[in-house]
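Form P-L/3: holo structure prediction, ligand flavin-adenine dinucleotide.
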Amino acid sequence: MTGPFFLYNLRISDNKAFLEAKQKKVAYIQPQKQHPRLSQSLQSLKDNLKCHHITFQTKKTLSSDPYNCLLPPGSILTKKGTPFRNFAQFYKAAKKELDESTFFFHSPSLVKDSSEHKAHQTLKSFVKNKLKKYEEEKDFPSLDATSHLSSHLHYGEISIERVYKETHTSESFCRELFFREFAYHTYHFFPHMDIQPLQDNLKGFPWKKSKVLFEKWKKGETGVPIVDAGMRELFETGWISNRMRMIVASFLVKDLHIPWQQGAEWFMERLIDGDLAINSFNWQWVAGCGIDPVPYFRIFNPYLQSKKYDPDNSYIKKWVPALEKNYPKQVVEHSIQRKKFLAFFKQRK
Ligand SMILES: Cc1cc2nc3c(=O)[nH]c(=O)nc-3n(C[C@H](O)[C@H](O)[C@H](O)COP(=O)(O)OP(=O)(O)OC[C@H]3O[C@@H](n4cnc5c(N)ncnc54)[C@H](O)[C@@H]3O)c2cc1C
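OUTPUT (holo model):
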């Protein structure tokens, strides 16, 4: 089968799938899981394609990339022909493939709509003002040093090719783009990873079913300032930085012992860039059951993270101004919860 394929809302003028669809007057999509986020994107995509007189069809099997990816998911394999399970190895192979391919980039040929325009401005301003210091500053939430391109990429308001082209001089930023790529390539092989762990090393873990604790986490009332600041920013703005996502996710799983799937679901509800593949990939990474996850014994200490990445408390003060007054007591003791988490693995050996 030939023709352009879509997963998300690829309404962009400099995306090759869009141009191809315009030429052929047809676009295909693979039936996806029922998820409110995906149905929203799909409806918006249908509307956009209709404006351009492009027919929209659903096909069960697609032969090419339905994502906004640099390389078609499924195309980067180990020598044995299996999916990569290690990011460093995937990165090396994918980068080599990209460097060797005649990197094909379409110049914009259509008038951009306002969201595309905003996406391009965001990229331009990031490259001009922040790219050079990205490696140094990206983990400090008060510096706001990252690109904010995630939702533009998710909604196809800018192509990944364009972003790569403008930013590939930064090794550190490039790695993040390939991390995104790795998430999609993994999702291609494991389409149930939003629910099912990719490794069974947490099987039998005594998860807590506490609705009260989960609600406190969602509202930013755990009594742990850096976690509460992150959860409040997420609630109010729909976005938090990668460092903050790791801190709050680790706290839910390894301190509150609440299943990662519940946290992932909440993120999907709140995040403006909520993306089934990237979100579940990262939650599994944090929980320790994903492809090439963080080792189970490396548990984020939220207080040390706070000291390192928010040394003057400016981020905390912004989101938890009532810290001195009526601030709740911590709902759990980090050192005790950490020991309990580790004890599970010791007893399994
Ligand atoms: C628990 C958890 C859940 C997440 N859920 C999502 C999600 O639903 N949607 C989403 O787009 N990102 C998700 N991320 C990845 C990452 O946090 C965001 O992409 C990033 O914070 C978005 O901000 P930015 O565009 O300023 O990122 P930048 O730091 O400027 O990075 C540039 C781009 O690289 C990609 N990227 C960066 N970090 C990652 C990563 N860890 N994994 C995959 N791609 C990455 C994104 O496309 C991002 O826009 C999640 C991370 C964690 C730890």
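COMMENT: Residues 87-189 form a domain with the Serine Threonine Protein Phosphatase 5, Tetratricopeptide repeat fold (CATH 1.25.40.80).
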